[in-house]
Amino acid sequence: MNKLRYFTAILLLTVLNTQAQYTEVINSNRPGASYSAFAVGKNVVQGEGGFYYERNDHSVLETEGNRYGMDYAIRYGFLFEQLELILDGTYTKENYTDFSMNPSVDYSRSNFTRNTIGAKYLIYDPYKNPEKNKPNLYSWRANNHVQWRNLIPAVAVYAGANFNFGDNPFYPEDPQVSPKVMIATQNHLTPNWVLVMNFVYDKFTTDDPLFNYVITLTHALPDPRYSIFVENQGYSSDSYSDGIFRAGAARLFEKNMQVDASLGINIKDTPSRFFGSIGISYRLDYHKDKPKQIDNVSDEDKEFIKEAKKKRRKKNPFEDLDTEE
Q1: Taking Cα atoms as reference points, which of 122, 117, 121 lies closest to residue 180?
Q2: How far is CA 102 from CA 50, 63, 85, 97, 108, in A?
């Protein structure tokens, strides 16, 4: 089997397995801060969580602080393949020292710095029709470079509510409930590069609404168990504006479990921030639908696909390749 035919057979097999939003291997939003445009799949329950540490020093207020906390998310796909419910948030404990006083004073506080419930729905999927997205069986370059059609993103909308529990020392002026809306886009630029963008308008019924964007670029390495990412996130409100850069990696340990790690910094010194996190994602997969069949596949290409299945099983034993032929 020549390399070009083998490669294109793999791509065709990938299309066969990815017609629906559901994927045989877990697809987590971690370790970045962005939301994928795609849902986890009907009847899938997915948990994503991790621990983080942040060091922040404020040059004007003359404070130094350390934050420890836990990020969490529970995603549930129901009713439709395009729909998922999301509960996500962050619980934080902070110890900081105020050096503007003599002698310096130590403080501590803890509460939720984020706690949101919402629903996300995919309204446009450019990859829905497999006939329009089949690989070119005669051009390696066409399959490995960005095509014009890849610049059209999948688009999802999100609507939810933030919940501010009790006397929250982090957000004492926030109401108990405030709205959050978002547009999420996703481009599969090539088989190994994915671009996700989020545009968020948060707490817009309060006196201090927040605009937030996230741009995440993810690359799958030659070993399909590993991926890396870079990310830029920006905030803008009357009380706080900042820019954050993150980078990290994830490893698949089995088809339903992923672990990850990341580091990040911001661009300001009011405060300056450095943070890192480690986490895990795991799903309970009760999805029953079978991948659809692509018509008009020649007998010759079916033989190539069979050979590609065998080679991919050897390379990635976590992947389920029981596609109908």
Answers
A1: 117
A2: 37, 13, 50, 11, 18
> Which residue is associated with the tokens 């790690």?
261
| Rounded Cα distance, 178 and 180, in Å | 7
Name all domains of the chain by residue range, CATH numbers in brackets.
20-290 (2.40.160.40)
- Across 105-190, where does the E strand assignment appear? 105-124, 154-163, 177-190
Over the stretch 147-175, which tens digit does the pLDDT of each residue have? 677 789 999 999 999 999 888 999 998 99
- Write the CB contacts of 33 (distance below 8 Å, at least 6 apart in sequence): 214, 216, 231, 233, 246
- CB-based contact 92:277 (threshold 8 Å): no
* Residue 231 CB partners (closer than 8 Å, separation 6+): 32, 33, 34, 214, 215, 216, 217, 244, 245, 246, 247, 264
Q: What is the pTM of this model?
A: 0.79
> For the residues 68-78, what does the mean pLDDT come to?
95
Residue 277: which of 29, 31, 27 has the closest Cα? 31
317: phi then psi, degrees, rounded to nearest 5: -70, -10
